[in-house]
Write a structure and sequence with these properties.
single chain, alpha+beta, Aminopeptidase, 5 helices, 7 strands
């Protein structure tokens, strides 16, 4: 997690850290409450959390260690692209910046893993989440009709490209005398 994200999260009374399998019960309580009939199974969540290509975070209240949010990224090192698998925040702490902090950390991790493109799907009927993702640089690239079942709600597919910190944004450019096309005649550097 970046130092800036950590400061923001702690200022809000929430500590954001890497998730462990010991957090699964707390994550699943939020998953079921937030996503109801569309919730992942505990086994699917566990499998994702243990996958070396995934990176999961939890937000927990500093005062009680209660998990109040989680987020996950699928991005194999060097694969060139990643996918925000999931993100959820309990209603009691929404609109305090936890989702933004976790998303910023997932984006940074995708960059560290070499992603140049990052994708996500979001319910078309969730304008708050769509607004957050736009503010973070994502833009709409398509719609998956009826993606969210059993509610038959469309998914808006969004993409962030280039990923900040990823290979497409890391460039040295011209350095020193080679930038002007000649080497010094006396051999000096």
């Amino acid at each position: 997690m970046s130092d800036e994200s950590e400061v923001i999260a702690q200022a809000a009374g929430v500590n954001v850290r890497l998730a462990t399998v010991d957090d699964l019960d707390g994550i699943m309580a939020i998953e079921r409450a937030v996503f109801e009939r569309e919730a992942w199974s505990a086994e699917a969540m566990r499998r994702d959390m243990l996958d070396a290509n995934c990176y999961y975070l939890v937000g927990e209240l500093v005062a009680t260690d209660q998990i109040v949010g989680y987020a996950g990224l699928l991005c194999g090192a060097g694969s060139g692209e990643g996918d925000i698998q999931t993100i959820a925040v309990t209603p009691t702490v929404r609109s305090r910046g936890l989702g933004r902090v976790m998303m910023a950390d997932l984006i940074a991790e995708a960059g560290r893993r070499g992603a140049t493109r990052l994708f996500l799907e979001v319910r078309a009927d969730n304008p708050v989440a769509i607004g957050l993702y736009r503010a973070l640089g994502f833009h709409e690239v398509g719609v998956r009709e009826g993606y969210y079942q059993p509610d038959n709600v469309d998914a808006v597919v969004m993409k962030l490209e280039p990923v900040p910190g990823g290979p497409a944004t890391r460039s040295l450019g011209p350095i020193g005398s080679e930038a002007i096309g000649e080497w010094p005649k006396d051999g000096a550097c």
